[in-house]
Write a structure and sequence with these properties.
Number of helices: 9
Shape: globular
Number of strands: 21
Radius of gyration: 26 Å
Helix content: 10-25%
Distance between the termini: 36 Å
């Protein structure tokens, strides 16, 4: 398992702590540090923004990009397929020395170059070219997860790109440390300091949970479950998540799946995500019962097994792509129908027609709470299995309308 001082600092204060001291303490308490190394992105690698992209006049596989670094805009020739306009990127300026690909090679110094007749004044970098783990086959796209992106600022000024990584090994009896939070708790006990937990940001929909989801427990269960409903309008990747998951061999090509895995990696909370079925009336149904082997499992209304709690998930986050695609097609058809019914000779009606509204995270607030057959294509059901949690007293009273047996009610109470 590979963790880092940046991740640990999300839970405990490591200011003034020497990395050698941290490694020694971990070894002393039975968490063996097998490898320790420093990540520091080279100097003169800065944040840039691609403001324009045009095809290379003499090469089909190259692009000519104009990259803004705050003080000036530089022309960069790039061969990556995933480079696009308005992306924030890591730009190596002239004089930057990038780490070698192997121990036998020397540092690679960036110089002004001429590529097929076009001058390039730097290089847009991939993660591996900066000495990081490979996260894709193209350039590394930066996002706000690393901090506020300031054009021209060196990447080494950001804490994530200037830290230490630790590869640790755990014995089978230390499953409590199979997360960054678990390791942070052990260090906090030695340092006699507090563990700081981030506050949950609620983006709950206006509907009470009971009107969207019903849950039943067919037997007395030992698992502690918490369900929430969220409307997903956009899913954005996180470069920090991608890098950390890649180091641990957990990175997938599905952004939502990466969010789920990273949450478990950081907190130890076992998380499952379910997409509400298309074209079905609300509320949806989840049933908790034991399977033929005696394991507690979650089933949907049609008795399809969604997961073995805490062991294996059968739900596919790829379903969200299908749902969003269907919703997009419905919206396009709706707009086409509106255009076809419009009088083409009525110029006034054309000028006063409102443009299609785009979905937003707050769009769910406009949903009629009394409409139990509302469109549900953008909703996801999330399940957290955790040892303790608190319920906000301000939650909608409909949260308690679920048809639960006595054992499940004890959990909700």
């Amino acid at each position: 398992m590979i963790i880092s001082t940046y991740l640990l600092s999300q839970f405990i204060d490591l200011e003034g702590r020497d990395i050698e001291q941290i490694a020694k303490i971990l070894n002393d308490i039975g968490i063996e540090v097998e490898k320790l190394w420093r990540l520091q992105v080279s100097k003169r690698v800065v944040v840039g923004k691609v403001v324009a992209k045009t095809p290379h006049p003499n090469a089909d596989k190259l692009s000519v990009c104009q990259v803004d670094i705050g003080s000036q805009t530089l022309q960069i020739v790039c061969g990556a397929k995933n480079v696009e306009q308005n992306q924030f990127v890591a730009l190596a300026l002239e004089g930057a020395k990038l780490p070698p690909k192997d121990e036998k090679s020397a540092f690679f110094e960036i110089k002004q170059s001429n590529l097929r007749g076009v001058t390039s004044y730097g290089m847009i970098c991939s993660s591996s070219e900066l000495g990081l783990c490979k996260i894709n086959d193209g350039i590394m796209v930066l996002d706000s997860s690393v901090g506020e992106l300031e054009l021209g600022r060196e990447l080494s000024d950001y804490p994530f790109f200037n830290q230490y990584f630790l590869e640790i090994s755990l014995t089978p009896n230390r499953g409590d440390c199979l997360s960054v939070l678990g390791v942070a708790r052990e260090l906090a006990s030695v340092f006699d300091s507090y563990v700081s937990l981030p506050k949950e940001r609620e983006n709950a929909i206006a509907l009470g949970l009971g009107r969207v989801l019903n849950t039943t427990a067919k037997c007395n269960i030992d698992s502690i479950l918490l369900y929430k409903v969220a409307k997903i309008t956009h899913i954005y990747p996180s470069v920090i998540e991608e890098i950390i998951l890649a180091y641990n061999g957990l990175l997938t090509k599905n952004t939502l799946e990466n969010h789920k895995i990273f949450t478990t990696f950081m907190t130890g909370v076992l998380l499952d995500i379910y997409a509400l079925p298309c074209d079905s009336a609300l509320p949806a149904m989840l049933k908790v019962q034991k399977d033929e082997k005696g394991f507690e499992c979650v089933y949907d209304r049609d008795d399809n097994k969604l997961c073995v709690i805490g062991v294996k998930s059968y739900a596919k986050t790829d379903d969200f792509k299908k749902i969003q695609s269907q919703e997009s097609n419905k919206e396009s058809n709706k707009q086409s129908n509106e255009k076809s019914t419009q009088n083409p000779n009525d110029e006034d009606s054309k000028s006063t027609q409102n443009p299609p509204t785009q979905s937003s995270p707050n769009a769910s607030k406009n949903i009629n709470k009394n409409d139990s057959k509302m469109a549900n294509q953008d909703f996801a059901i999330t399940k957290y299995q955790r040892e303790e949690y608190e319920l906000d007293s301000s939650d909608d009273e409909d949260f308690f309308e679920d048809d639960l047996d006595s054992s499940q009610k004890e959990v909700d109470d």
